[in-house]
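Protocol step 4 of 6: structure prediction from sequence.
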Amino acid sequence: MSETRTVTKIPAKQYFGYRKVGIYCRVSTKSQEQMDSLAAQVSLLTRLAAARVNWMLVDVYLDIRSGSDVASRVEFHRMMDDCRAKKLNIVFTKSISRFGRNTGDTLKALNELSNLGVEVIFQLEDINTKNPDSQLMVSLLEGIAQQENEERRNNILWGMTRRAENGTSTLYNRICYGYAHDDGGDLRINEAEAAIVRSIFDLYLHGKSVLGIQRELEARGIKSPTGKERWCRRSIEKMLSNEKYSGDVIIFKTYSMGFPDTKRKVNEPAQRTKIQSIGNHPAIISKETFLAVQAEKERRSNIEKVEEGVRRKATKYSSRKRT
């Protein structure tokens, strides 16, 4: 066929399709300032997502937890589960510090999301994890954020310690069961609750186990400190160990080492300085009663020290036995 064909080039159409987007926002506390910050994060990211023609907002994930404590961030885990279930293509977040302040956990999550084919976009830093050099940048910025967080934590702790040392700390007047605040913010006795506190100490000194005290309180129909019908044994144990009922206060009875070991530890034997205020407020029980209970607790303890370390010993006060 000698005639020249007339041909027309039809360019390929690039199909974008909808990208399923999840917005992740986080603040550390429920303070008004932090809640305003959370609302601002959500508002900004929602508007930016809506401006993308091929983005479809699927869900918003909100955490009010520390960025270093990944295990307790419920919404973060829900977001990760949705990514594993292929419900999201993109995670859109304000900044690296909002995504997390623990470098190891953050990079682990980012690696998993990358393997799942999910992009993470940090709006403030203008970083998209689909770019090859993004992980190095994230690692560097995350390390800086973590260091800043540690410095902030140390500054807060320093301030708390100074206020405790000069007697102006509000920690001295933190209420517990049996106490309330007067008009000036100082501790005063709540007589109705104080009677129950005295009864708990008295029952213990007269041979009742913690489990026995729990059953006694529930049999009397006495509500727990949280207003529930059932008492928690741990609550009773803490009450029996609380020096505040004798009128004294000890501050910094627990401490945290910081990242990576963020779990609070009992400051006993003292690894950190503790500060004590004697006669800080009206006592519900005498010091003699409080010390007698501590001695009785030691006598009943199921742990004894031996040359090899510690070992358990038989005791009739074990919660596994009938009282």
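Step 5 (inspection) to follow. The chain is about 40% helix and 15% strand.
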